[in-house]
Amino acid sequence: MKANKNLHTYLFLFILIIFPVFLLANDQEPDQLKNDLQIVWPLLQTIKVEYDLTNAQLEFIESDEERTEFLKEYEEFVKEKYFKTLLSLKYRQVKLLVLLIDREFGENAFTLLRKYRTFSRALYWYRAGKVVGIDIREKYKPENYPEIEEELLRIKSAPPACIDQLAAP
What is the pLDDT of residue 161? Predict the structure, then answer.
């Protein structure tokens, strides 16, 4: 009886949470990838700049305590500056951003969280992402995403955006 109750609970959670997310993920317009990349790519470039700035600062910090404190403070700064932008992203765009983080950094979002914060923080976001169908451990393989690669070539060949536009949603 208990197994049957658990099955009903899981089915209810699937219908309530996962199924609507699945529908949203498959709701594609013809130029959707192009539009999503035009939003996500500048944000990814901003993330790369913040990553480089963080690493430059960390080079001058000697103790683990100071490093931990710096990363906590930097996390608060990033939340204040970019949280609204991240909240404005659609599900597809978040999923794309997570994939592109692995493409650009050579490490997935889980590894970066574990490296710069803690394993428990990375595990929390991994589990939260899995609930809505986003795997922050996923590796980007260009051969699996030829349409993304094609669109990124087009974007990279375009003139650079104004620096003020990078953080804009």
Answer: 57
